[in-house]
Every structure is written in C-alpha cells, then in structure tokens.
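user: can you give me the structure for this one chain? tokens are fine.
assistant: on it. calling the predictor now.
[tool input]
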Amino acid sequence: MSQISPIAIDATKQSTAPAAPKLGNPAVVGLAGFGLTTLMLQFHNLGLAGVGPVIWLGFFFGGLAQMVAGLQEQKMGNNFGYSAFTSFGCFWISLCAIFVAKAYNLFPVNATDVGWFLVAWALYSSILWIASIKISKAMFFTFTTLMIGFVLLIIEKFTGNEEMAFLAGLDLTLCAFGAWYMMASAIYKDVFGRDVLPVGKPFA
C-alpha cells in the first residue's frame, strides 16, 4: 500500500488551518487624530476658537490615540506609520504640556524656545517628507504642507511677524484636510471594496 508523504500531510494541515482574522488599519485612527487636532489648532491660530479644545484634543486624540495607532503600525510592519504616528502623538502631548506648564509658570518658555522646538520637529519631519515621495501623492501633499507650516511658524516665533502665523494657519488647514483625505480613502476602500478616493501613485 502506498504511503502518504510528510509533505502532503503538511499541505493538508495548512489548507485546513483557520484563516487569520482581519485586522483594522491603525492609520485611519492616526490620520484622524493628526488631522482633527491640527485643524483645531488652526481654528485657534486664526482667532476662531480658544486654546482649551486644542489642549484636550492634543492630549487625548492627537496625542494618546495617535501614539497608540503608531504602536499598532509596528505589528503591520509599517516603519513609516510606526515612526510618524508614534512621534506626532508625542509631539501633541509635549506641545500641550508646554502650554499647560506655561500657564502655571512651570518650566516657562518664550517664543524663541518654541521656535527651536519647531525647528527640531521640522528637521524630523523632513525625513518623513522625503520618504513620502515613495508612498503616494496624497501623503506627499500632506507632508509638504506640514513642512511649509513649520517654516512659517518658525519665522513667526523668531521674528514676531503675526502674518506668518496667519499664513501657517491657512496652510496647515490644508495639511489637516490632506490627512483626512487619506483616512477617508482607507475607510471607503474597505467599506465599498474599491478605490473611491485615490491617493495617487508615488512620484518616485
């Protein structure tokens, strides 16, 4: 009587193994938190809202939720999302901590201090900006507007030119909408089963 080879047995086991459960895309949370908190900050910078909503969103949605999404990106094998979401989650938490500490005269900072804080973040963001060229046009747009916003805010902090802050508010509003566009693209693609909002092929 013929024998069944070990290879055939292994193949049978593999074919009957249960399929891995579908995982959600953590980017939809990371992009939502980044976009919404960025947008709320621009409402404040444009004189439409106070700083209170920015603080609480920065701690919990732009900060904590985005950082958690970044940590989940590690399990997806996505180094770009892992670095970006985790880092910008910490950005929002640290920025809001600066605002709160300043209000209580704890480790007070001046405009120049915040300017150097933004310089450091602009340098970090430039690394992701270069990488975004290889991801999609929507990602490149979002990081390009982010870089422009950082530059405008840095100029405002070092020169006191309030017009720069106004221009940064307009620019970073577009940045927030860019993040939301990518979020909506991922959600709609999953829900409708097709590419409803294309993000565009990468430039490189």
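assistant: here you go. Residues 25-192 form one domain. The CA atoms of residues 35 and 177 lie 7 Å apart.
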